[in-house]
Design brief:
Blueprint (H helix, E strand, L loop, with lengths): L7 H21 L6 E6 H8 L5 H9 L3 H7 L3 E5 L2 E6 L1 H10 L4 H11 L5 H11 L3 E5 L7 E5 L8 E6 L4 E6 L1 H7 L2
Antiparallel strand pairs: 1-3, 2-3, 4-5, 5-6, 6-7
Pfam families: DUF3877
Organism: Hominisplanchenecus faecis
InterPro entries: DUF3877
Length: about 180
Amino acid sequence: MYQFPGNEGYKKLLKNLIDVIKEDHAKLGFRKEKIRLYYPLSSLNHFFGTSDDADQMQERLNHLPVVITEKLGEVAATHKAERFCFHIPEEGSEYVHNNMKENEFIKSLIELLQKHGCKMDDILNLFHKYSDNIITENMDNGEFDILIRFEDKPDDPYYYCFKDEGCHIIYHRFLKEDYEDFGF
């Protein structure tokens, strides 16, 4: 059987799965239900520091280590071409809800974005509420208007990209490597 180096990549994957589940709970509320989360192959390769093709990555994910299954249950990963789907069982969603501290920032951000009349200044003020050290970059790529990220919060490594669509503001958050892959 193929031997995989260390658990560091699996720990990064677990952290991201939990972060996405917490974001899902903040947006939709908690329900004890199965969740499907999708990742491109490139993102998974970033977690593991590899350049696996889809079949190699599938082999890597076929037998997830205890570091993941003890928290999220019997997670199954499947793929079509370079798009991977993680099937998180009900107990994984429930574990995150019952055992992981709620992400107060993401919850506040989602609540703010749901308010009619939300402006970019409101979003900047929210970021400053959580840290004085944020980095902002104007973006002129047609996809997003501004990037905001925390400079000093290792528990929040995400790059938040915002687009003002006139009647509301949308966002997407990326890990640094995925953001760089897009070449914004």
